[in-house]
């Protein structure tokens, strides 16, 4: 799923963040065991929608946890704040077509 989202929607800036590190962060039981830098490669509103979809499989991936861990950065390298994610979702919504594309990716790759 992460591989497909990275390839088709530039989820991660793969020069800064490996897909494996993102997967490890999502699945770790101890978030403080490693230090991660998760730099997204897409616009914040797209990342917000993907996070909302990922919450089904990674329920601890909340806006406040993203901010509090300090591991997530925008495509410009700035730390991601919960307020940025909320504002992005409210003030710059994705088109229906993009949401459908994301939903299709999740449906086809969630097994």
Task: Describe it.
This protein has 111 residues and is mainly alpha-helical. 53% of the residues lie in helices and 4% in strands. The chain is built from 6 helices and 2 strands, in the order ααβααβαα. It has a two-stranded parallel ribbon. Helix 4 runs antiparallel to helix 5. It is globular and about 40 Å long.
Question: Topology of this structure?
Answer:
Elements (H helix, E strand, L loop, with lengths): L1 H8 L9 H9 L10 E2 L4 H11 L8 H7 L2 E2 L8 H10 L4 H14 L2
Helix pairs in contact: 3-5, 4-5
Low-pLDDT residue spans? none
* H and E string: HHEHHEHH
Oligomer state of the chains in this structure: single chain
Using only C-alpha atoms, the radius of gyration works out to: 13 Å
Structural class call reads mainly alpha
End-to-end span in angstroms? 9 Å
Mean pLDDT: 92
Indicate the overall shape.
globular
Q: List the strand order in the largest sheet.
A: 1-2
Number of helices: 6
Strand content: under 5%
Q: Biggest sheet: strands, sense, closure?
A: 2 strands, parallel
Percentage of residues assigned to helices: 40-55%
Total strands:
2
Q: What is this structure, in a nutshell?
A:
Helix 4 runs antiparallel to helix 5. This protein has 111 residues and is mainly alpha-helical.
Which descriptors would you attach to this protein?
single chain, 111 residues, 53% helix, two-stranded parallel sheet, mainly alpha
């Amino acid at each position: 799923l992460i591989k497909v989202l990275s390839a088709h929607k530039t989820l991660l800036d793969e020069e800064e963040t490996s897909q494996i590190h993102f997967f490890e962060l999502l699945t770790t039981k101890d978030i403080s065991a490693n230090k991660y830098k998760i730099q997204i490669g897409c616009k914040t509103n797209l990342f917000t929608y993907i996070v909302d979809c990922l919450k089904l499989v990674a329920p601890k991936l909340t806006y406040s946890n993203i901010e509090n861990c300090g591991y997530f950065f925008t495509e410009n390298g700035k730390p991601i704040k919960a307020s940025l994610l909320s504002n992005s979702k409210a003030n710059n919504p994705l088109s229906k077509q993009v949401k459908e594309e994301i939903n299709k990716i999740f449906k086809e790759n969630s097994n």
